[in-house]
DNA sequence: ATTTTCACATACGCTGCGTATTTCGATTGA
DNA sequence: TCAATCGAAATACGCAGCGTATGTGAAAAT
């Protein structure tokens, strides 16, 4: 029973994405060679252009995969908290910590915007932002947060968090800097509370 | 009286930076051709590699120029305010508005991090961040702001502001979205006030 | 006046993307 | 079972663009 066509195709797609993820993370988007990358996956550029259209398409697929993983993880961590507000804080802190991963930093934070444009219009929809937005909308509805613009609040919070992550990662001693950033983030976020305690 | 060597060299450097600024803004870093760019400046790639080393070096020079302009403008705007706190807010809002300029957005916000890495370690030192940091340090010393980590606060504030700008610019009706972002930013920032009123 | 310097131009090679064409195994139908 | 078809991936090709090595001519130095 020969392996089915669709099976192998999906396997090849997955292999390409995996190899691309590694190459983009290690060398950056521009320096990642498609020839090397596909060869590492046991394929050629032919498979790549057939499946993803072009280099950018492959990159978008990689970003989408990472974005999904990040959003899932953040949601899980947020779900452990008792209150919606603590969940929002926990999610934001989770993003900061995830951004310490070199893969996330290089692909999503540095190359992502340059290659795909503003995150809010990524093909992957930027699931991370959606998660934050949902949490914010609910907190505003509950009266926990001030009645600010939900989209603006979500953008500002995630922007602050991810930017903090870049700073931490670039610092000499990330583990030492992390708590400073997280602490400051908590203070900042209270500015959006209806009744800061 | 033949034109002096240093004179023409400086003129050429300026011409290259000007042409590069235009090309990088219009086409993005990757798509900007050095041949076209130098020709537009009435020179060849020879001048470029002699003056800036490589494409990245020229880009760094452009970023530095824009960064300086932005910081100067922000400081000016901040200086008009009566209190340090209002100055900080005004500076942040100025950054948001400046980031609506396509040139700033494409070069500094999108391509900058991808090409030069995290802004805090740019050759230009990221003067914008320095301005914010200085303001924050003073406000903490005066007791206006909570005694948080100044560097963290500056990074979070500027990160939130610049990210908001990206969002605004990508939206369909930027002028309408701008006040929503600015308003939310003001609320958020109060989280760092020692005595929120 | 001759030599030296150096800012820039010219010429070259190499890498790497994208496309057009080809191949060959898998699928389908009789 | 075999022939016909399909299409996923391989192969071959062209071209753009970066960086470097070398050349050149005008300003500076002696």
TrEMBL record, chains A, B:
Gene3D superfamilies: Tetracycline Repressor, domain 2. Residues 33-52 bind DNA. InterPro entries: Homeodomain-like_sf (IPR009057), HTH-type_TetR-like_transc_reg (IPR050109), HTH_TetR (IPR001647), Rv0078-like_C (IPR049484), Tet_transcr_reg_TetR-rel_C_sf (IPR036271). Residues 10-70 form the HTH tetR-type domain. SUPFAM superfamilies: Homeodomain-like, Tetracyclin repressor-like, C-terminal domain. GO terms for molecular function: DNA-binding transcription factor activity; transcription cis-regulatory region binding. Keywords: DNA-binding. The keyword Transmembrane helix does not apply. This is Transcriptional regulator, TetR family. It comes from Thalassobaculum litoreum DSM 18839.
